[in-house]
Amino acid sequence: xxxxxxxxxxxxxxxxxxxxxxxxxxxxxxxxxxxxxxxxxxxxxxxxxxxxxxxxxxxxxxxxxxxxxxxxxxxxxxxxxxxxxxxxxxxxxxxxxxxxxxxxxxxxxxxxxxxxxxxxxxxxxxxxxxxxxxxxxxxxxxxxxxxxxxxxxxxxxxxxxxxxxxxxxxxxx
Length: 173
Hints:
Low-confidence stretches: none
Largest sheet: 4 strands, mixed
CATH topology: Nucleoside Triphosphate Pyrophosphohydrolase
Number of domains: 1
Number of strands: 10
CATH architecture: Alpha-Beta Complex
């Protein structure tokens, strides 16, 4: 019925929309339309994984997460994941594997994050943005799972990535 664009920025377009639902009721929604993102869990040759500890300004905390980033205009999630891996870790992937996807918070955004693993890593070019405060850590896969179990990792895309991998491993066992 109506849409008011409050902001159209780097993260996406934030709108207030008034709509008529299928049941005939009218509703008002605040929606962030997001271009989408891709996340990747990089595996080292010895089976360990690369995890990031990154300062996130909106929550004023450091948090553990897998490398990830927003799709650029016209960019596929496959291209995005390869680009973000190199920018944030300094590694290029010889091979990527798709795991699935996750909707981050469907109650207010259409953001969809595509989840991947990266293998056969080669040295590339680290190119973090000036506002990115990131530490990179090489960790055992099971140690990261234990951190999730203890509640030390609360990042949704990271938990979803590990869940997809654990379910895939269980299915092939």
